[in-house]
């Protein structure tokens, strides 16, 4: 009878614990990260040879989870966060390019075209001249507003990136603190739930992989260890790198990747490396951003330090010192020296940090931006006008252009990345990945840079074709300064727009008063010309991607919208994958109030039954104790 009382008491205690656990589950039904608890009970082991049971004992309270499903959930959550952030960024850019019938850049471009037509019909009208001046300024301002709008969005993302990295570091430190408590007090369901919730939150920012084998906790971000040995936390940092633009030119007829003109001369027995021969009177001009230019005339005398030994001498420009003469002119030009520096070939760095070149001979022409980063990029080319020894323009190839050697030149870049202990972390998903790849100009996935490049290409073509032209027939022209520099015919200067990028684009309204009927006829053809190229070179080039100015801008707007739509599709698809996993995981781990209420009724009944047994035994004992002889 006494043993039965002990069995009932153990059942009473187990039922009480189970009821309290059910109450705890119901109370935390909506607590973030909370996982359903279950009470594990087992039969008490025998202490002797008796067959009667000893009752039940509570082994512990365990949380219901699936580590495999949870790891898949945080992986898919990171991917959804990446597309969600990308969609948000592209949505902001799409709103910048939003237009109506009467507003937006397309409307401004059409009004500019109309102002050209009006002035063309009445070239002497001051009203129409003023209208063209206003519309030209509006056109430039509208383009620059689009560009600056995207820049502001990019700047906001950079600011948010730093805030997100701080958030990541805060989560890492909190996880490390939880691991310290687990080491000190042992595993606790509440601590484990909190750590899981932090891991899920962390996966919103970056891709996370976690190892929890045999009590050893290790967390990696982008494959790099952020937490090791349970509590050793390594925070992440944002790094920014800006590289210089370096353009290399070889002043030879065949613009192959020849290291130096000197090497070309050494190999003059090979036709492939035959150097270009310049005649006295030939004009070699370097043009920067379609704004500034400097020239060297073959045969002219220049006073300068030719050999780099500090001594200034007077020498005539020849084929053997042309590069050095052009370097001198570029570096002496007040409109150029603040943004670029020219060098005679490669340089070394002396003890004082100065760049030193070998000037005993001509090398290739090297032009660098003075400051790094995409904001300091520039556009340059060399134009050559050839004359014979008598000063007469050569009938064939009288003009030509030399562009930078693409294989040996380096574009300016602005890189943004995250690192752990100065080691770059390549995030595969998450909000930070979306931000980093759209802040780095060298990233192939940088949507912002695609839009910047297209806007710059538009500005470059606009500035080029409105600068100069050659009339070849009644209504036919060679468009642009770059094409004119490579073609025969009389070059007509307009100069209405200048610059080779959005930031350098200008409308020279003072030149409106100098527009003749012939120039207005030329300008009027631009709105119908659908054969314009946007590769930064001459309009007579072989580019296959040709379109009118209106068509090119319309294609840019379509690109923005298509990018947004494509990302939204991927986001919705990924969200469906995540939701499927989350639904299965929640079904396993979340509290179901209906099931909990059934368990509550069951455990309360067990508690009542055990209580009644104890009451009955108590009554039996009292009866036995009350018996008299």
Layout of secondary structure:
Layout: H1 2-27, E1 37-43, E2 56-63, H2 67-96, H3 105-121, H4 126-185, H5 189-205, E3 208-211, E4 218-221, E5 224-228, E6 232-233, E7 236-243, E8 246-249, H6 261-266, E9 283-288, E10 292-297, E11 301-304, E12 313-316, H7 322-332, E13 340-344, E14 347-349, E15 355-357, E16 365-369, E17 380-385, E18 399-402, E19 413-420, E20 423-425, H8 431-437, H9 447-465, E21 468-471, E22 477-479, H10 481-484, E23 491-493, E24 497-498, E25 506-507, H11 517-524, E26 532-533, E27 546-547, H12 549-589, H13 593-625
Antiparallel strand pairs: 1-2, 3-4, 4-5, 5-6, 7-19, 8-16, 9-10, 9-17, 11-12, 13-16, 14-15, 17-18, 19-20, 21-22, 21-23, 24-25, 26-27
Helix pairs in contact: 1-13, 2-4, 2-5, 2-8, 2-12, 3-4, 3-11, 4-5, 4-8, 4-9, 9-12
Task: Please tell me about this protein's structure.
The protein has 629 residues and is of the alpha+beta class. The protein has 13 helices and 27 strands. The chain has a 4-stranded antiparallel beta sheet. α2 packs antiparallel against α4 (126-185), α2 runs parallel beside α5 and α2 (67-96) packs antiparallel against α12. 33% of the residues are buried.
